[in-house]
Amino acid sequence: MQFDDALSTYVAESRELLQEMEDALLQIEHETDRDELLNAIFRAAHTIKGSAGLFGLDDIVSFTHGAESLLDRLRGGELVVTEDMIALLLSCRDHISTLIDQVEQGGGPLEASVRERGEELSTRLKKAGSVAESPADIGAQPRTSQKETEIERIIDASHACTDNWHISLRFGSDSLRNGMDPLSFLRYLGTIGSIVSISPVDDQLPEPDEMDAESCYLGFEINFKSDADKETIDSAFDFIREDSLIRIIAPHSSIGNYIELIQNLPEEDMYLGEMLIRCGSLTRSELEQALNQQQSLEENEISQYIGSILVESQVITQPVVDAAVQKQAQAREGKVREAQSVRVDADKLDHLINLIGELVIAGAGTSIHAQALGDNSLIESVSTLTRLVEEVRDSTLRLRMVQIGSTFNRFQRVVRDVSKELGKDIDLIITGGETELDKTVVEKISDPLMHLVRNSMDHGIEPADVRQKAGKSRKGVLRLNAYHDSGSIVIEVSDDGGGLNRDKILRKAIEKGLVSADQQLEDQEIYNLVFEPGFSTADQVSNLSGRGVGMDVVKRNITSLRGTIDIDSKPGQGSCTRIRMPLTLAIIDGFLVGVEQSSFVVPLDMVLECVELSENDRATTADRNYINLRGEVLPFIRLREMFEMGGTPPRRENVIVVNYAGNKAGLVVDRLMGEFQTVIKPLGKIFSRVLCVGGSTILGDGEVALILDVPGLISMATHTEKQTLGSAS
Fold it and tell me: Least buried of 5, 185, 454, 626, by fewest C-beta within 10 Å?
């Protein structure tokens, strides 16, 4: 892999890790068991820092190291998680993101503002690490540990201020009977290093009248200087290992080396003990003793991790075990990610989908020629080919389908920050996060959703005292929901605020000349006036809203994606903004119809049924635009008249009954031409003002067919029906 490609991969992976870091930081506020979340945050920061070091990104390494140090103290229980601590770590996460953006843009010197922000955060990190309250300071229970033994106190005291090996020896009582000379072991140590100091230990020595001349009661605490590794030193005591107590504590300088060696181990799924042996911090004999102890505990129905046993036995230090556990987790996560997904460049995927689209068009053309030739074997082969093309098409489109939950989760941070800015207490509830849609749609829907969420928090949800007077909870609730409906995805942004003020909206609309004073509008139509350009009912302009810029942009962006947006509201109970979007912007199943010499495509998932327009219906509908469909009034539109195609209608016309968001309408056409796989081609800017057309496609015979905008057609038909019924009454 070239350096630039590797750096691009680092940027992409770092952004994923930063998102995981943010999600965990936001979740940790509401969790009581925070250990796993703290570990996940630490791993994300550590991975970003470690990978940055490979590319020489010193700014990222130095800054992330400060955040990592604070996180390490939080994991160790030395500091407690507070709201201010989370806010600081979120700010650090944002600064790391800024530094990574700088890398993506080509590097170079940091801007003064970015550098100053980094220095400010680094100072705050150091201050938080030095003055933050410990669990004991605020009444929390400190982490418990086993009662220190006399041996442990001696080791701690003698090892605290040295950088030599420390050896703690307690000879077994039968050592002399077995022909072992304790002093010979000290002499052997002198051949592989030098004994700096030695302290005899007589804590096992009994009263004189209870002493046994053949028993050994000796023990030593040895300060040992040597360049030998732990395995070599440990091998000096092979002959007395079974009945003696031997502890070998590495120099402080070696601990850092062990951690570095662990971090440089290959990404393999290894046992913890194997990792510690490979880095030289643990010997096989020490591991065997720890495993035997673990087995004994399990026989007594006591579960304890091997790392805890090694630390409690002072065979190894906690930082080394933590480094091994972290490396183990990284290796496993890497394997899980590798097994679950393969990173593919988005441009390559788009190119593949474009090729599939062309294949669909070519397949349709082949089917037309086969039908014209009338060769049964050829028709059967083409049918098989068409089925396979459909499967390839569906599988390819699924490659670009992603869950909307990741987009929803990003608003956790927005809600947290904006609610604090507004002085409101607001909860975000997310449902339907597993709902899938096209990645392109997800990317383009993010900004409109952002505005709707901020608008609901600013305009919708009332301050706490107002809510309390209205008999509501002081804490407001904002909901994000998604679900599939009739081949579309529905995204809802709702709140339990005060709702829209119908009269105020109507008064503003009349003042701006959007509607006339005598015009009769339903509540739904009045609420939708907020999407008109420059419309706002805010009494004051704030940083979030009130300038009349935003809601019209939201609607324009949604419409450009062949979607619709509307608002439902109940005074005093809240509002719900509902967005309907197509699942994909590339290929759809369509129903092909014809009028005169032109062809049109109706999205198949919106077609309910096809009925023939009888001569009686034709006679009675000459002056109206609706028919009686089994006792139900069905408004319709004649495509011939709408597109001013002229000509004479055939004796037998057909009505395509379509449905969108629970509303039905009919489309009157000349011919029904059957189902058709449609590759959507966007119209040029010159056609941007053409009503009720969502795009175009190329038919198998090379002709162009327009794809109808069913939501727009239904809206037009319903409006025309109301006018007709109103004039009739």
Answer: 5
